[in-house]
Amino acid sequence: MGAVLNRRPGGAQRIPRPATWTAGDLAAPAAHPLTRSVADVVDALAGSSPVRPPAPAFPGARPSAVLVALADGDQGAEVLLTRRSMDLRHHRGEVSFPGGRIDPGENPVEAATREAHEEVGLERDAVTIVGELDHLSTVVSLSYIVPVVGVLAAPLSLRPTSLEVERVFWLPLAELVRPDTYRSERWGQAPTDRLLHFFELDDETIWGATATVLVDLLRRI
User: Which residue would you say has higher pLDDT here, 4 or 109?
Assistant: First the structure.
């Protein structure tokens, strides 16, 4: 028998698993994070196109956008993340990107950068937009999400500027590809079961739409 991998503890986030679920067998995203800079990410995005479904996966999904903000740190590219407040009605305590609904008259870039300013105080002129990742629909929040990728000159020191956010942090992509961090689960029964991604960090668990976007980003680089 091979050695049992000791996984990182993760965070205190509540995972609302259904009665029927199984451990997934999807391999962790492969990458060489110590050599992956923001420039590498920009090059990878330039050489690939995001999946843009012509319509949400279900009726009633509301257009939303999130900002996947990247900057070079000591371990290579880092991504900006937040933890949502435990006082919220939906997605309480979950790790997420800055983002929210697209207001009438806005495009995804305008919505993502506006939400980032409202939630963490990130100024729009500090971000250079370089592309998008795959669009996705989420059932729980009834959202059709456009992940907008932007780069910063450095990982700015930011703090929550909204009651919706209780923590702001920069996470090196190197942390996501450690062998003790990624796992997957299948919720429900075949053929309608859903694949979910999880990243267990030392103090947080990233899952749901945020983990799906991060898997997409890692696969591209």
Answer: 109
